[in-house]
Design goal:
single chain; 234 residues; 30% helix; globular; binds 2-acetamido-2-deoxy-beta-D-glucopyranose; glycoprotein; Fibroblast growth factor; differentiation; Fibroblast_GF_fam
Length: 234
Amino acid sequence: MLITVILALSFLDPSRQEAGAPRLAAALKVPCPRGQACDPRLRRDAGGRGGVYEHLGGAPRRRKLYCATKYHLQIHPNGKINGSLEKTSVFSILEITAVDVGIVAIKGLFSSRYLAMNKRGRLYASDSYNAECEFVERIHELGYNTYASRLYRTIPSGAGAKHKASAERLWYVSINGKGRPRRGFKTRRTQKSSLFLPRVLDNKDHELVRLFHTNVRYRESILNSSNRRRKRRH
Ligand SMILES: *[C@@H]1O[C@H](CO)[C@@H](O)[C@H](O)[C@H]1NC(C)=O
Ligand SMILES: *[C@@H]1O[C@H](CO)[C@@H](O)[C@H](O)[C@H]1NC(C)=O
């Protein structure tokens, strides 16, 4: 009965299916078939070559992450993370890949950088894949997701710690009402700034992706202009 409900739910929303399948398999303790995403041998292999995402997650989900503060999360080539109020912005087009059960990597399609959180809770765009690029993806009410660092969190210390496992606090990806990221340790699961709606690409986004892949000049002009901005500031 429960299984039927879970299955029905996971088919309602196509964007949930990729993430839902391994979770479901884990929940039901289905043994992992050889060569599948859940196969730990494969994970080790792929990790050594830095190709974790493609191998583990299959095809990435192309999405924009729309924060409840009305900003689209952007991953910039200069290493910066922030939000855009624009509906169409190249650096908000993302590839989300399951790298483990319930764990995702989020890559900017145009910047080729990964969303990452460092040990001080700052978000940055990493040009290589590492453990700071792994986030726990959770589904919440109204279709919003949260993304918490897999690596860093607030571990309670002192007297209260023993009997309150719940005092441990996750550090969430978060874009505040000014379009700027909040430090992980200041975030809460319930804040608007930590809630993201994964949106599928619209026609305009698809057109930008097509141009980016087929038109070298277009690609260079986007990446060059963002480099120039960075140089001017320093
Ligand atoms: C986001 O960062 C980019 C790149 O550094 C910058 O050009 C843009 O103005 C920033 N936007 C906001 C809303 O802060
Ligand atoms: C972008 O920069 C590269 C190297 O700096 C240069 O060769 C190329 O012509 C530039 N492209 C555009 C469209 O500005």
